[in-house]
């Protein structure tokens, strides 16, 4: 349905995001990147229609808020799709979602890894998978390939206890 591009992240630690007197949010490079640049950007594909609609609605509201308030920067990098969310609050919400679904809690990183493995399983396209996940190294992306292959071996061996195998990361 679409994609968005991340070039940086707020430089706020675990505290709430703070704007300066010009409405600008201090930013830092994405994790494992040395600088903020197009080369270091991550493309986030959105393959679910409902999620895309939610994100578009949030982007429109954030844009309108920036335009309507003179103390906010008009720079799109200063639009917040999820104002007030910190690492702690997002983790707590993820835990609540897992509990509501009666599932064992998995971290955001584990969810990302599961999605990467799923993407590899449906496409088996390393170049696309690496791009979607923001990896430049084949070595790093191989984690997803190896996990997918281990799951296939477990299923194909008709191991009835494969659900209990430990595929945690």
Outline:
With 169 residues, the protein is mostly helical. It is built from five helices and four strands; from the N terminus they run E-E-E-E-H-H-H-H-H.
Description of the structure:
By secondary structure, this protein is mainly α. Helices cover 46% and strands 8% of the residues. It contains five helices and four strands; from the N terminus they run E-E-E-E-H-H-H-H-H. The chain has helices at residues 49-68, 87-100, 108-123, 126-133, 138-156, and strands at residues 2-6, 9-10, 27-28, 42-46. Strands 1-4 form a two-stranded antiparallel ribbon. A two-stranded antiparallel ribbon has the order 2-3. Helix 3 packs antiparallel against helix 4 (126-133) and helix 3 (108-123) crosses helix 5 (138-156). 5% of the residues are buried. The model has no long low-confidence stretch (mean pLDDT 80).
């Amino acid at each position: 349905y679409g994609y968005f591009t991340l070039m940086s992240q707020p430089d706020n630690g675990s505290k709430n995001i703070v704007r300066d007197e010009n409405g600008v949010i201090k930013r830092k490079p994405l994790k494992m990147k040395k600088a903020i640049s197009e080369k270091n950007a991550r493309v986030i594909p959105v393959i679910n229609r409902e999620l895309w609609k939610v994100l578009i609605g949030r982007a429109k509201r954030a844009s309108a808020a920036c335009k309507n308030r003179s103390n906010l920067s008009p720079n799109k990098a200063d639009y917040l799709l999820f104002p007030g969310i910190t690492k702690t609050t997002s983790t707590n919400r993820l835990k609540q979602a897992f509990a509501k679904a009666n599932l064992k809690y998995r971290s955001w990183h584990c969810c990302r890894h599961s999605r990467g493995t799923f993407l590899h399983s449906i496409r088996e396209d390393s170049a696309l998978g690496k791009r979607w996940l923001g990896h430049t190294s084949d070595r790093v992306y191989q984690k997803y390939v190896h996990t997918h292959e281990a799951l296939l071996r477990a299923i194909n061996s008709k191991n009835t206890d494969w659900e209990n195998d430990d595929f945690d990361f």
